[in-house]
Amino acid sequence: MGCAASTKEQSERSGLGQLEAKRRCEMGEQSGRMSMSLHEGIVYDPDELIKRLEKLDEERHFIQQQLNRAHNAVELADTSISEEVDVPANRSRFSRVAPANSSIRFPTIRAIPESRGFSSSTSRAAYDRRASGLATSSFGPRLSHASYTSNGTGITQASPNSPSQLLAMVRRGRKRAQYNSRRQTATLTVMHENENVLLLPRGGVYVKTRHGPVQFGIPPETIKDTLRLGVDVPKMYVVGKERFNLKFGTNTAEFEFPAYYNFFIKGSRTTVVSSAEAASVIRSVMDEAIEGPVEDELYQDSEYSPFVEPSIYEARPDLHAEIGYFKEPRNGRKIETDTLLAFVKFEPSAELEGQMVASMAFEDGSVSIHDRGDVYDVLVDGELVASVPDWLASAIADPPHILMPSRSLASISSMDDFETPEFGVTILGAADGFTPTGTTAGFVLWMRGHGILVDPPAHSAHYLRLNGISSRKITHVILTHCHADHDAGTFQKILLEQRVTVMTTRTIMAAFIRKYALISDMPIDFLQRLFLFHSVKIAEPVHFQGGSIKFFYSLHALPCIGFRAELAGKSITYSGDTFYDPDGLIELEKRGIISEARRLSLLHDCSVQESDLLMHEAGVPPIHTPMSALQQLPERIRSKVKVIHCSDARAEEGGFEKVRPGFEHTIRIEAEPPLHAEANSIVQILMATDLFRSFDVASMVDVLSVITTRSYAAKEVICSSGEEGAYLRIIRSGTVNYERDGATRELRYCDYFGEGELLTDAKLPCTAVAATRVEMLEMAREDVRYLFRRRPLLMSRIQQRARLGYTASWAAIGANSVFATFSMSQVTQLQSLMQEQRVRAGEVVWRKGEEVSDVVLVGDAKLAFRELAAVPGAIKEDLEPFGEGALLVNVYALENRLKHELTLNAVSEGTIFRIGGEDLLDFLDNNPGAFIWMRDTLVVC
């Protein structure tokens, strides 16, 4: 009693933090028992025990990440019953996934099972093309984080060690930065001066010819550019050498919607001009989009919980039959890759040595594309009309072109005016894939202030960041299906900052992985490492932020899900893409495509349910829902309907309100706040930071006992440079302008500052001003010191970061094309790992034959691989020293503890920053977007 009563008094008298005062009191009471920890003369060092405990905490966090990856692998494994086992047709429902007497195998994750039958709706040719595309989708020697069996081919890639391979990796790293962003340059000025050339807003180059336009590069939603500009949608497209833009996580050979437009609206095929290798990959991607998964890649029978009602399981879809229905010929034309696309491949020129040529003949002339390596020439009837740099076929406008409505600068400065809903949705896009003035359908589902992105449109992550929404507020994605207008933004979100959780069924996720392994040219096992997969079960609730989400299979041309979200007695239903039409469903039942149970479920339990908000798609039938079917709904349901995935005109004609994109149009459903809402909110913020995410429960309770909240008005000074550090500050809401050494950066949700000065007794080097109304979590100096003294490894990293040459490290980070895009939180984590070193001219940084143990970020020094000069074919540009911002890295060698194949020397005196190999790998585990840049190169510029 005496100790408890005096703790607060001690703190007030001495200025000690609450936790430190409590600790001293407890130590006094327990000093008489300390000898009990001594046995047979053994004395335990408390500091060493604390370090061991901290390492165990970090190891637990690492093992949890490994477990999550293992779950990904198991969920996506091709689980099949041995053919030797006789499985009765009427086996119990609990045996649907794993019969008691069966043999279950979990093979290596691969894109194509070893054997399969071919259905009437999926041709052997399409299957063979898909397998071939996965096997040949490499552009030069590609590596993942570890040795892998290349996409099911059985060929294991080894570490590159030949001089030519190493030179190719260096070249790739130097060139890759150029391929990403389209900024105004002298080259673009020349392009603008050519009356035959248009630079499309989203990316891509449009060249006018008398035989029809030719387009170089095909980013998502590209046909909306041409439709909006009022020019002809091209029928001829040239595929660039890099088909995937790493910076924006974007497919730059997205043929789905150009092909659909030309086929369904123009009645013609789309011509693809490409290399033979690219043609194989594009064919395979289109097969996946049009044919859908083959029958044994449809796992719907195992996607229901064994605990669901028998009637729910009985209503499961026959996805194979449903996909086949939507593929039926229209107007006498089959819907398959070869009826949508025609391929013209580059061949060696017979007249021009070293050039590749692709020619297209017309009744009154020809168009030919000459590939000169870095430039494409467009010749019409033998006359040159335009020259297009190869990199423009892969570059995306920077910043990216988006049609989602952004707030003005004035409104962004009052960002706190947007309070994330307890329950509701913010629409990012509401249009279909062909509406020129709108972004494709996608939205944020808000539950207790945290968001789930649902089918995010392309560049929506960038849009959210521009509007002040931290990526750490939106940690999950729902992927409804794998059409390009729904999955393009999902891959982008996966590559942004911390690891994201993707919620969908196993069938849809497997299709997504197959598709993006082809598109991105990344191995399947590597892709699975980039995110967490939550394999949802149909009709089984997924718990999120105190609410629940139940999923159902809609009726669409590809496997597609919708959902019903519930929170505090309120509900939001989203249809997903679906064909809802009572009369049409009766016809499908008569034809045996759906069962009676499936029809009744589609009518009453799926896209149409009584809800506080019912968002229903209203695209063009028969793939989508006719407006007349929604008009016939009972008033109690129809009154809650808001349509999405359609044009404004279509919504107006149907008499329904269409959801409106933008934060100001956020739909809020009033919901009672939960018990312990405050503590829960604070814990989630703490767990999102690298400072506290490995804290155990007892330590987190300590943190909650001393943390306080404080509000700052817009323009209020939070702290000033030169002051003594008093608090660790973590932003709960709002935006802070953080100024240091003449540079100002914006800090937002979960960003923190002030920790280094508390542990080093240094003066504050920054001035922080509230740009908006800000709510801050604050911890006093003594409490921070007490907590971090119990974590000496973490404290050491913080102190190391505080001592780091701030200006020099920021300059190096800012000069790197990948690190320059990092959030403040990511930069802070990175700086915690960096060790500054001064090198002299001629000094060896890495020596050939020594084990690879770290990576190097170049400061103001110059470094070079001397051996490259002796490689046949090396040119002057290959030998240029690596300057500020260059990251020298070999992730494959780090993970496999291989030896350096080249010696890295300092060409001039200066500063470099070393990052330990294990530290880097841990960092990449939490920042997958950086990982993809490093997987197949020796340098990231």
UniProtKB/TrEMBL annotation:
| Highest taxon above the source species | Eukaryota
> What's the cofactor?
Mg(2+)
- Reply yes or no: does the keyword Hydrolase apply: yes
Which stretches of sequence are listed as region Disordered?
1-22
Entry-linked CDD domains? CAP_ED, DdPDE5-like_MBL-fold
Describe the location of the Cyclic nucleotide-binding domain by residue ranges: 691-797, 818-890
Q: Name one GO molecular function term.
A: DNA-binding transcription factor activity
Any Pfam family hit: cNMP_binding
Listed GO cellular component terms?
cytosol
Q: Where in the cell is it found?
A: Cytoplasm
Any idea which UniProt keywords this protein has? Answer: Cytoplasm, Hydrolase, Magnesium, Metal-binding, Nucleotide-binding, Repeat
**What family does this belong to?**
Belongs to the metallo-beta-lactamase superfamily. cNMP phosphodiesterase family.
Which PANTHER family does this one have? CRP FAMILY TRANSCRIPTIONAL REGULATORY PROTEIN, REGULATORY PROTEIN YEIL
Name the chain's protein.
Cyclic nucleotide-binding domain-containing protein
Phylogenetic lineage? Eukaryota, Sar, Alveolata, Ciliophora, Intramacronucleata
